[in-house]
Amino acid sequence: MSRSAVVWDPALLAYKLGDDHPFNPVRLDLTIRLATALGVLDDVPLVVPEPVEVDQLYRAHAAEYVEAVRQAPMAGWDVGHGLGTPDNPVFTDMHEASSLVVGSTLVGARCIAEGKAARAVNIAGGLHHAMHGRSSGFCVYNDCAVAISWLLDHGFDRIAYVDTDVHHGDGVQAAFYGDPRVLTVSLHQHPFTLFPGTGYSAEIGVADGEGYAVNVPLPPATQDAGWLRAFHAVVPSVLEAFRPQILVTQCGVDSHEEDPLADLSLTVDGHRTIYRTLRGLADTYADGRWLAVGGGGYQLIRVVPRSWTHLLATVLDRDVAPTTALPRNWTEHVLALAPKAEIPARMTDDAEGGEPEFSRWGDGMDDAVDIAIRDTRRAVFPLHGLDPHDPRD
């Protein structure tokens, strides 16, 4: 069995919401070019996706909505379902391009379910805001929800979804809000300060799914240390209690301090640490099974390519040293596209390429991050037999 599968095809660049839209597929192209230039993808056979059949989309979406997406480019702007808005403009071949994104995440899930790989990564995926009957937040079809639903029908009954995007993973949470087979965990900027306005600590699931939605809303300006402190205070404990068979992670990088659409203050080094932590958690709690997808990220040149190259490298066990210089051929390509671009010199934001340091929860700190941690632990830990006051949990 191959250890890892990388899903990619240039056709995924067709998911393009417009030349001036922040969700620009150039970030994907620059990531693959950077990973290739650094040798991360050497001798790695890329898994080429195909668009999913319509019946697979019905796992997460209403038939009426799917038909609206198909008809939207011909019907014009007044199609409803969240389509034709500034966030989700109608574009040519929207259904086909969106179906390919879903297919790319689904083929990664298949690789793992069929034993062809223990890990799979699809940087083009992560469209976590799309809802059952409407588009939202740049997302037309919810590839994460479709893949999780498919896994539930193919041998998995305990799936953990961890969302590290700056925005709440609302569409995935909504899809499984009452389902105890799916644990959804989201760390994000506080919903009072950022779209989509959901993801409070008190959102914990309903009925049989109570306790299986976990939300950690973080204050604006949270840096690496605070973010990692919150993650380690919540995520390992709930994963250990849940005992997932597979870990699905949405790895948006719009939490970076330079991202133009949000207000957290992480670094590329923080992102790299997150990916390595997720890899370790998959090995510890999910028998190594890990499906990683992309998500948000709108600093197209300085942030996304470096962060997601680290993601690809982490999944492949080909970790890139943070002090590694960006290859000249890559920087020349970027400057040909954007002559005035300010290009970082190395694969790190830190002058010395060090790992972010953070203190563990329970060490006596008392700030806004700790308030978020306490609220989340109090809301969900007792439902899993965990002590919300014990830092060992």
Automatic annotation (TrEMBL):
Record has Translocase as a keyword: no
Pathway annotation from the record: Ketone degradation; acetoin degradation
Keywords noted in UniProt: Acetoin catabolism
Domain Histone deacetylase stretches: 21-314
GO BP annotations, alphabetical order: acetoin catabolic process; epigenetic regulation of gene expression
Pfam families per record: Hist_deacetyl
InterPro entries to which the protein is assigned, alphabetical: AcuC, HDACs, His_deacetylse_dom, His_deacetylse_dom_sf, Ureohydrolase_dom_sf
Gene3D superfamilies registered for this protein in UniProt: Histone deacetylase domain
GO molecular function, one term: histone deacetylase activity
Family: Belongs to the histone deacetylase family.
Name of this chain's protein: Acetoin utilization protein AcuC
Native source organism of the sequence: Saccharomonospora azurea NA-128
